[in-house]
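Task card 7
Instruction: Convert sequence to structure tokens.
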Amino acid sequence: MEKRLQILEGLIEEYIKHPAPISSSYLQKRLNINLSSATIRYYFKQLTQSGYLVKKHRSSGRVPSSMALKLYWRQKLKERSFYIKDIEQMQKGGEEIFYEYSIYTNRRLEEIENYQNRFLIAKFGSDELVIQYNAKIEKLLHSLIGQNAFEIAKYCSDLGLKSLALLIKDFHKEEFHIFNIDEIVQMASKDKEWAKEHLAYVLSGKKLGVERAGLYFYNLFLSYKFYVELPKNRRGEVLLMGRLYRDYQRFIKNLVKE
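Output:
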């Protein structure tokens, strides 16, 4: 890795551990790199001029800019699905990051019955989901017979049929949990416009249910959604939200560790 990028990544990782200005001498001790403190200060100056670092007050220390943090997380948060052996790990994500998750049974769609062009009855094993009749929806669901409910819901969401996707997910939902609301409250206090448009949507679980897996940025914080596979043919989805300097990698490691 180019030394300039190695210094930037090393500074970001130290800042995530301890959100305070990082000095060249401190970084020299922490990095496994053969560079003098003076050379690191030279790179600090370059990275500051490029907009990746910010100098706070008169301190010689630097902090990563929001641009640098977003670039870092784009490189690190690429996975869209994880296998979790123990569902109890879902409740051990830590205290800094707001997160919510849903767990679903994942039965196969076995049959679609049309009731007098008024309702569609989707049969998942011994359970029946009643859906308002729509000829296009009927045709779509017939084409998906044999597929698992969670995959059907994801496919409907990708097609823009978000209400149908939520209906199918809600029908199969076993659990829904929210953790660390204080973090999202603090986020909302820093961005009133975001809070007005999104906060209720997040806390209701609807954002979790319809948003595609991936990484999204909102000014000075991010959201990261991914899917989880669980024993006994269950599926789940997780939404993380927090400020850019939170340790999302540690959260993932805690979640998927054996």
